[in-house]
Design goal:
Largest sheet: none
Order of helices and strands: HHHHHHHHHHHHHHHHHHH
Helix content: over 70%
Length: 455
């Protein structure tokens, strides 16, 4: 009698089937099974069971073709998180997902990598959506951050997966909670990355955290300020025009006594000066309002999406606190201190300046730079030649002469051995003339006399 298989195993096998209809029916059954089981008291899933479920879900997406269908399936798989009625099971679902992706990541080929990138993004989006539905409860947020640190930032995650998570983390968090999260809550969400940047020995990971997390905060700082200005402007616009009405009521009263008084030339001068100053102040305020409106319009033109608000001074203090510890490596401390300086400047209203178009190098600039380098090299060589003392120059010249003599002697000896093999046994290197050359001369003379005899 065959043993009955577990429902998770049967569902996983059908989820990984070749036919799309079979996979679709299996996913619907899985959703119903998750809802019905999680509603029963004590009916939660174990880690082993969810790993089997995720094995089937992973290969369900593996078998899916066509980008639109892949996106739909990724949304369904990530949305399955809300079918679990228990918070502990929801966190276990996310944990087993990260374990499955870490295990299978290196086996994903380049043609299927994009859809798994998309799945990771959608799962993180639904995790933040779950936190939003729970009103960003501090204890639940802490458990999620602890899960991310344990599964991704402990050094066991593949580099590609980790770098992708760093790229999408703040973007997805902003899409879900930019309107509700405060600056202190946002600081708590980047706390794991601050700690990892201080203690990691992986320089690639450190650079990725600095560029993807902290670099994104710095890049979005101007837009965060614009959002604050918009909020202030809306708050000012909501106030009633009671001030103008009161001024209008006071104006006839104030004008009545002024008409009764006779104005002297001094009063006329002072009133004209006050009026001119007031006009200048009004013009300055109008210019400031125009500039502010232009900045707001430019910010609207550049669609960067929702922006998270950060207290830059608090971020700088936290990074400085971690960097100043004795167990922090020198390389990490240097990187963090640079970030501290940047965030200090942002807290004081000083934004880092981007390179303008004139700072971009062209081919002509590169050619000039190369020629400049060549000139500098020549100058250095000339300076080195001038700096050498005369005694050293004599030694170098003598050494060069010895080398030439040695080379000539080697050449003559090689020529002598070659001529000896040709038949001359009386060749002497030291002599000025040899029998070989005398024989050649006599042969030429005899041949010349033979040719001249008939004439």
């Amino acid at each position: 009698m065959a043993l009955e298989q577990e429902p998770e195993v049967l569902l996983a096998q059908k989820l990984a089937a070749n036919e799309r209809t079979v996979r679709t029916k299996a996913f619907k059954k899985l959703r119903k099974y998750v809802r019905s089981r999680s509603q029963v008291p004590g009916g939660g899933f174990t880690e082993e069971e969810l790993l089997k479920v995720w094995k089937g879900l992973f290969y369900c997406l593996w078998m899916q073709d066509k980008p639109l269908l892949q996106e739909e399936l990724s949304e369904q798989i990530s949305g399955l998180l809300h079918s679990f009625q228990n918070t502990n099971t929801q966190l276990l679902y996310v944990e087993t997902f990260l374990q499955t992706v870490k295990r299978e990541w290196n086996g994903i080929d380049r043609l299927r990598m994009d859809k798994f990138f998309q799945l990771v993004r959608f799962v993180f989006r639904q995790v933040f959506e779950t936190l939003k539905r729970n009103d960003w409860e501090e204890s639940l947020c802490g458990r999620v951050l602890q899960l991310i640190s344990a599964q991704l930032l402990d050094g066991s995650a593949p580099s590609g997966l980790l770098l992708h998570v760093l790229d999408l983390y703040l973007t997805e968090l902003g899409l879900v909670g930019a309107e509700q999260l405060t600056a202190d809550q946002n600081l708590s969400f980047i706390e794991p990355f601050c700690r990892t940047a201080a203690k990691t020995k992986d320089r690639v990971l450190l650079q990725a955290i600095c560029s993807s997390v902290f670099g994104q905060i710095v890049e979005q700082a101007p837009f965060a300020v614009v959002d604050l200005l918009k909020e202030l402007k809306t708050q000012q616009g909501e106030e009633p025009d009671s001030g103008q009405a009161s001024e209008g009521e006071e104006s006839p009263q104030s004008s009545a006594p002024s008409n009764s008084k006779v104005k002297t030339p001094k009063d006329k001068k002072t009133s004209s000066l006050k009026a001119s100053k007031k006009e200048k102040l009004d013009e300055d305020e109008e210019e400031d309002d125009k500039l502010l409106d232009d900045d707001l319009d430019l910010a609207d033109d550049e669609d960067v999406g929702p922006v998270l608000q950060f207290n830059f001074g608090a971020v700088a203090d936290r990074l400085f606190q971690l960097a100043s510890k004795t167990n922090t490596a020198t390389h990490n401390r240097t990187k963090l201190y640079k970030l501290v300086k940047t965030f200090r400047d942002l807290s004081e209203g000083v934004f880092p300046q981007d390179e303008g178009p004139e700072a971009v190098s062209t081919d002509e600039d590169d050619d000039e730079f190369r020629s400049r380098r060549k000139r500098k090299k020549k100058q250095r060589r000339g300076e080195e030649a001038e700096d050498t003392p005369p005694k050293r120059k004599k030694e170098e010249a003598a050494e060069e002469g010895r080398f030439r003599v040695h080379f000539l002697s080697e050449f003559i000896s090689s020529q002598a051995s070659f001529l000896q093999r040709k038949g001359s046994s009386h060749f002497t290197v030291k002599g000025k003339e040899s029998d070989v050359w005398t024989k050649k001369i006599t042969r030429q003379q005899s041949s010349g006399s033979r040719t001249a005899a008939p004439s």
